[in-house]
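Morning. Coffee machine broken again, so started the prediction first thing and wrote up yesterday's gels while waiting. Chain of 335 residues, entered below exactly as on the submission form.
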Amino acid sequence: MAFPSKFVAFVSFLVLTITQFSHSIPFIVLHGIGNECSNRGVKQFTELLTNFSGSKGYCLEVGDGTWDSWFMPLEEQTAVVCEKVKQMKKLSKGYNIVGLSQGNLIGRGVVEFCDGGPQVKNFISLAGPHAGIASVPLCGSSFLCMIASELIKSGIYSDYIQAHLAPSGYLKLPNDILHYLEKCRFLPKLNNELPDERNSTYKKRFTRLQNLVLIMFENDNVLIPRETSWFGYYPDGAFKPVIRPQKTKLYTENWIGLKTLDDAGRVHYISVAGGHLEISRKDMKKHVVPYLKDQASIVEIQSGYAKVHGTHHNIRQSRKRKQACLGCKTKHHPN
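Came back before lunch.
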């Protein structure tokens, strides 16, 4: 008995839909500095990604949120998240990470340092200071910012500041690289920058990622330079020019396996319009949501290949367009 072609098509669609739903895996959101999971922006951002992707999302808090995001050392923040993901049974078969600004470094710390943790499949980074920052993040005039300002004045690479100010763990001053390597407690370890202390386990764990999505915001004036979102940075000893990711020693000498991932087509360099973490819902759906579905782990996204200085890399750009403010309808600022 032959079945009508429309019926066969419907059954195929139904099976595909059920398969996709059953294969969805959870994701966690790690917020940035000065924020917390209960804040409206982060909460809405997590809910939107859950609704758009069909995958359950969880914002994981560290301590009391805002205060600890500023004043708890990143190694301690990473340890907190490591224990939380190991205790969450829903993550035991694997999960994805969505990092926001500083939260990306905590997420990468979980990937590289977390012994016995569940496997991270896809890592989606929005405005992550992966190669460091040359200036402390903009803060303002709040009480927390005044405390941070006073701490910074006492010496960013001092033992006291490294133990009491989170951003000091990834502040990389090009004109003070020796002190950075000697005294900075987090980023040199995370990026395997110390020649005598390079850890093959960190590299092995990082290269297990199925996709690394690096989203840079074209008008980002919080991250200095903004190209740190792609692992680009300044040369040692100078504040210009910005070295593109594929020319840095971290990449060419493959300290953490970034080149390995890139050669395998698993690194996606994406540029979107907007300031720091100002992402539209359209860009969320285009650049983030596909990687929250398990199919993105095995299906290579073909659109938007570009050739960069003779080498092929996944680069996709969302050109500037009119966007409404947060709380209107299109633009979303989770931090």
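The mean pLDDT is 85. Going to sketch it on the whiteboard this afternoon.
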